[in-house]
Amino acid sequence: MAPLVRLLMARLAVSLLTLLIVSVLVFMATELLPGDVAQAVLGQSATPEAVAALRAVMHLDQPAWLRYLTWLGGLLTLHPGHSLVNDLPVAQLIGSRLPNSLLLAGLTALVAVPVALVLGITAAVWRGGAYDRIVGLLTVSAVSVPEFLVATLAVLVFAVQRHWLPSMFYEMPDRSAMQLLRAFALPVMTLSFVVIAQIARMTRAALINVLDSSYVEMAVLKGVRPLRLVLLHALPNALGPIVNAVALSVSFLLGGVIIVETIFNYPGLAKLMVDAVTTRDMPLVQACAMIFCTAYLLLVLLADVFAILSNPRLRHR
Fold first, then answer.
1. What is the DSSP letter of 89?
2. 158 and 186 in contact (C-beta within 8 Å)?
3. What phi and psi values does residue 82 have, to the nearest 5 degrees?
4. What are the chain's domains?
5. Distance between CA atoms of residues 200 and 285, nearest Å
6. How many whole angstroms separate alpha carbon 198 and alpha carbon 241?
7. Is 20 exposed, middle or buried (0-12, 13-18, 19+ CB in 10 A)?
8. How many whole angstroms from its chain centre is CA 90?
9. Residue 89, strand partner residues
10. Angle, CA 88 vertex, CA 87 and CA 93 arms, to 5°
11. Do 92 and 290 form a contact (C-beta atoms < 8 A)?
12. Which of 155, 175, 173 is nearest to 165 (CA)?
């Protein structure tokens, strides 16, 4: 077997093992959550006999290890069970919300990634100058500010004071392009704030490391123009770390939008997970958590594969 194939298979095996460990941790974490879904469904006035009967119907009286194996088998066959609250298939509930989260993440990536790459590349080219210091100050400030504060300030400025944008996401059957743009503006703006800062900082660091290499100095001595030097000589060799930064940021969009979806009442997967935690709907919580973890590991795996393919030393190791 070729070294490249062995390396890729090893990365895939590590990802699958990590996902198995994550499934155990997710199941244990949901088991430790306070409250009883049977009690929540029947109300506080329910008798202990009624609660015990409902727990038996929901299979909550079974040992934890048996429920975990049953749940894991359902995940492997793409049948993660039924919601304990509304008795609908978990796959159906997730299928109605997942496209919304993917749409929000896609729009944010479409806005944030190009802006971040431009900021990171220009800051690396003009490093040490006033522009580089301003970009560095802004990106450090953006990374330090939590998402809920950004969302709250955005609502306060653009919705409450200026009345330019709606403070809550609203669904309409026949929305125009402008109405759709206004509805997504604040959630996308909030998510882009941190993503742009993270990718820009990683892009700047990766590109500076390449620009300091000896072959770039040789290209400068040969008279290669600055734009050609950056785009054709330096940037392709810095794509590995940049793609890793983009992959991590996109995984943040898929799994870190809980606050944003909650604040703006966006009907996405993260909002569904928050509602499921409130009602102690454990199968739904577990399935949502596993989707977030799987998406994160998949993006990291793709970034690793790209880094291996783009680096000759890793390909022939």
1. B
2. yes
3. -115, 150
4. 91-315 (1.10.3720.10)
5. 33
6. 12
7. exposed
8. 21
9. 82
10. 140
11. no
12. 155
Measuring CA to CA, which residue among 121, 123, 145 is closest to residue 132? 123
Q: Are 299 and 247 in contact (CB under 8 A)?
A: yes
Please report, for residues 6, 20, 31, 300, the alpha-carbon distance to residue 24 in angstroms, rounded to integers and kept in the order given: 27, 7, 11, 20
In contact, 195 and 108? CB cutoff 8 Å: yes
CB 72 within 8 A of CB 78: no
Question: What's the pLDDT score for residue 172?
Answer: 56
Joined tokens for residue 107: 């729009």
* List of residues 6+ apart from 159 with CB closer than 8 A: 165, 166, 167, 186
CB 89 within 8 A of CB 115: no
Backbone angles phi, psi at 207, to 5 degrees: -70, -35
Residue-wise pLDDT tens digits, 25-79: 888 887 776 666 666 666 667 777 777 776 776 667 777 788 888 888 888 887 8
